[in-house]
Design goal:
Blueprint (H helix, E strand, L loop, with lengths): L4 E10 L2 E11 L4 E5 L6 H8 L7 E5 L6 E4 L11 H11 L5 H10 L15 H13 L5 E5 L7 H16 L3 E6 L11 E6 L2 E7 H4 L2 H18 L1
Parallel strand pairs: 3-7, 3-8, 5-6, 6-7
Antiparallel strand pairs: 1-2, 1-4, 8-9
C-alpha cells in the first residue's frame, strides 16, 4: 500500500525510438507538480505509464492504494452524441454519484452552464477541452493527472483552472500537469520536473528553485543547455 505514484528506472521504447529513458520519479499528495518540457520529450508517455495505459519496456511502477484517479489527455474523451448535461450525468454515475454540490462546483470552474443542453459534438475546441477536464474531476480524485490542460482554453478559463488546481492541491490532493509552456503554472507549482528527449534533466521543489521568475529562468536554461549538448 502506498500514498503516491512512483517509478524507478522507467524506460519505454517504441522500436528504435526511446520515449522515456531511465526515469525515477514520485508523485506526492498535496502538491502541484508540473511536468514540463518541449513537445516530444516523453511527458505524455510517462503519464500513460503511470495510469496503466502504456506498458513500460523496463522499470518499476508503483501505484497508490486509492482508486480515485482522474485524468485528461490532449484529445478530449466523451460521448459526442450526448449533451453536455448527459455526459456529466453518465460520468457522475460511473464516478459513484459524487455530491451534487461538487458537480455544480466543477460546472462553475469550467463555465459549462451555458452549454449544458448542447450536443458534445457541436462544442467548440475550448468547450470540448473544458468538458473533458470537468469529467476528469467528477470523482473528486486524490490524484489528478492532466496532459496539456491549458490547450484551447481562453485566458479567463486558464486563470480559473490554474487557481482551482492550486486550491485543490492545498486540500491534500496530488495535481500533475504536463505542459510545454510553464509560464501559467510557475506562480502555483510546488515541484518542477523538466524532461528532455525522454530523460529528466531537472527536478526540484519550489523552495529549492526559489521563486516564480527563477522557475521560468531555470526551465529555459535547462532546455537551452540540453539543446546545446545534443
Amino acid at each position: 500500500m502506498t500514498d503516491r505514484f512512483r517509478v524507478e528506472n522507467l524506460t519505454k521504447d517504441y522500436g528504435p525510438v526511446v520515449a522515456v529513458d531511465g526515469v525515477d520519479l514520485s508523485i506526492e499528495p498535496g502538491v502541484v507538480h508540473c511536468l514540463a518540457g518541449p513537445n516530444g520529450s516523453g511527458k505524455s508517455t510517462l503519464l500513460g505509464v503511470l495510469l496503466g495505459l502504456v506498458r513500460p519496456t523496463e522499470g518499476t511502477v508503483v501505484r497508490p492504494a486509492s482508486d480515485r484517479v482522474g485524468a485528461s489527455f490532449q484529445e478530449p474523451a466523451f460521448y459526442d452524441d450526448l449533451t453536455v448535461r448527459e455526459n456529466l450525468d453518465v460520468f457522475r454515475a460511473l464516478a459513484g454519484d459524487p455530491a451534487f454540490e461538487w458537480v455544480q462546483e466543477v460546472i462553475g470552474v469550467f463555465n459549462l452552464s451555458r452549454v449544458l443542453h448542447r450536443r458534445a459534438a457541436e462544442l467548440s475546441g475550448g468547450y470540448s477541452k473544458q468538458l473533458d477536464l470537468a469529467l476528469a474531476l467528477l470523482n473528486e480524485p486524490d490524484f489528478l493527472l492532466l496532459d496539456e490542460p491549458l490547450a484551447d482554453l481562453d485566458d479567463v478559463t486558464r486563470e480559473s483552472l490554474v487557481a482551482f488546481l492550486e486550491r485543490y492541491a492545498a486540500e491534500g490532493n496530488a495535481v500533475v500537469v504536463s505542459s510545454h509552456r510553464i509560464d501559467a503554472f510557475a506562480p502555483v507549482l510546488d515541484r518542477l520536473t523538466v524532461m528532455y528527449e525522454g530523460e529528466i534533466v531537472l527536478d526540484g521543489r519550489r523552495e529549492e528553485i526559489d521563486g516564480t521568475e527563477t522557475i521560468r529562468r531555470v526551465y529555459r536554461e535547462a532546455i537551452a543547455e540540453n539543446d546545446e549538448e545534443r
